[in-house]
Amino acid sequence: MFRSDSLTRAWEIFKAMIGMNGVELPLSYVGLLHRLGLGWLPVRSHADSPWLVFRGLSQWLCLAALLAVVRCLPNSQEIMRQVEPTSHSWPQRLLWRPSLVWSLLISAGLAISLLRMVKSSEFLYFQF
C-alpha cells in the first residue's frame, strides 16, 4: 500500500486489506448467510480452494477453547499483582514469584528464541 504508484491503487489495496473485496467461506456457510439475511455480503466459495483458511466445526472448537483460555486465565497484570494489586484474586499457584522453576522456564524460552534466530531474514523496509 505504501509503495503503490497511485492513490487509486493504494485505495484498492486498503479495501482488500479490510475485506471489502469479499471473504471466502466454506460452501456450507453460504446457504446459512442467505438464511440469516446476509446474502448480500461479498462471499466467494470454493470447495477445494488452497486458500480456504476456515475449516468448520474443528476450527470453531479450537477458537472456543482459546477464548476460554483468554477469558479464564489471569493476564500478565493479574499474574504480577504483587507489584500492583488488581481487583481479581487468583490462586496463589498462578501468581508469579521469583523461583527456580520460573527461572528455568524463562531461560528455556530465551534459549529456544536465540536458537531459532539462526536463519537470516530480509529486512522488511529495505530501500523503503
Write a compact overview of the structure shown.
By secondary structure, the protein is mainly α.
Assess the beta-strand content as a share of residues. Answer: under 5%
**Lateral arrangement of strands in the main beta sheet:** 1-2
The overall pLDDT, averaged over residues, is 76
Helix content: 40-55%
Order of helices and strands: HEHEHHH
Judging from the principal axes of the Cα atoms, what is the shape? extended
Tell me the number of helical segments per DSSP (H or I, 4 or more residues long): 5
Q: Enumerate the spans where pLDDT stays under 50 for 5 or more consecutive residues.
A: none
Rg result = 23 Å
Number of strands: 2
Q: In angstroms, what separates the terminal alpha carbons?
A: 12 Å
Structure classification: mainly alpha
Query: Sheet with the most strands?
Result: 2 strands, parallel
Give a topology summary.
Elements: H1 7-17, E1 23-24, H2 27-35, E2 43-44, H3 57-72, H4 76-79, H5 100-115
Parallel strand pairs: 1-2
Describe the 3D structure:
The protein is mainly α. Helices cover 44% and strands 3% of the residues. It is built from 5 helices and 2 strands; from the N terminus they run H-E-H-E-H-H-H. The chain has helices at 7-17, 27-35, 57-72, 76-79, 100-115; strands at residues 23-24, 43-44. Helix 2 (27-35) links the parallel strand 1 and strand 2 (43-44).
Keywords:
single chain, 44% helix, two-stranded parallel sheet, mainly alpha, 3% strand, 128 residues, extended
